[in-house]
């Protein structure tokens, strides 16, 4: 077996037993270590992760950025490759990273990686990639932000970055039930974050965001290429945009029972 690369893979997870094994398996045999940070799964996520070869730790949920920072702090390597439990490193991306480390040439400090949705129920990747974040980076040159919602690596001013050609697959839909539950939790956090940053609810945004979101998803993101499933993805994207706006309105303007 060839030597593993000096990379620590970090994954945050909760209730991902049905799919986290595939994420771990896409990196376990060529990266030095895989670290899973579980925030209190009620299913078999911890057992599945350990069986797949990951070092699994518990940390109460503090928010997306903070949880990924906690994962960074557990790594024994300077190089970090962060993936989500519903993401998979595709073979061409693995080969590109391996060649990068084997070349002996000066490496950049951080690499942008394109993440493509895999349309639910198919093997087809969406042509559009809304996500091109830094996911492979030196911990000495960048850290995840502390935002509870916006989990992005913030590179140091002197850091050098580059883009990788290989892609990552994003299996975001486990089921429609799961999608709705995930959307509900995430839009709640988005609305709280917007309110904390001083954003005010807007009647215009409440009326317009669904329709602009659908047009953006179906046409500009190219979901129309995916047939019926592409239409469903565009509707999901549009509804999530609408949902965060009405939750911001609720949090700002409506007194609920939980307010006392």
Which structural class fits the helix and strand makeup?
Answer: alpha/beta
The fraction of residues in strands falls at 15-25%
Q: And the CATH topology of the largest domain?
A: Spore Coat Polysaccharide Biosynthesis Protein SpsA, Chain A
The number of helices is 7
Q: How many domains is the backbone divided into? A: 2
Number of extended strands: 10
Per CATH, the class of the largest domain reads: Alpha Beta
Give the neighbour order of strands across the main sheet: 3-2-1-4-7-6-10-5
Radius of gyration using CA atoms only: 19 Å
Distance from first to last alpha carbon = 62 Å
Helicity range of the residues?
Answer: 25-40%
CATH architecture of the largest domain: Alpha-Beta Complex
Mean of residue pLDDT? Answer: 91
Task: Give the helices and strands as they follow along the chain.
Answer: EHEHEHEEHEEEEEHHH
Largest sheet: 8 strands, mixed
Q: Please mark out the parts with pLDDT under 50 across 5 or more consecutive residues, or reply none.
A: none
CATH superfamily of the largest domain: Spore Coat Polysaccharide Biosynthesis Protein SpsA, Chain A
Shape: globular
Question: What keywords describe this structure?
Answer:
260 residues, alpha/beta, Spore Coat Polysaccharide Biosynthesis Protein SpsA, Chain A, 2 domains, globular
What does this structure look like?
With about 260 residues, this protein is of the alpha/beta class. The chain contains seven helices and ten strands. It has helices at about 20-25, 45-50, 65-75, 90-100, 175-195, 205-220, 225-255; strands spanning about 5-15, 30-40, 55-60, 80, 85-90, 110-115, 135-140, 140-145, 155, 160-170. The strands form two sheets. It has an eight-stranded mixed sheet with strand order 3-2-1-4-7-6-10-5, with helices on both faces. Helix 5 runs parallel beside helix 7 (about 225-255). The mean pLDDT is about 90.
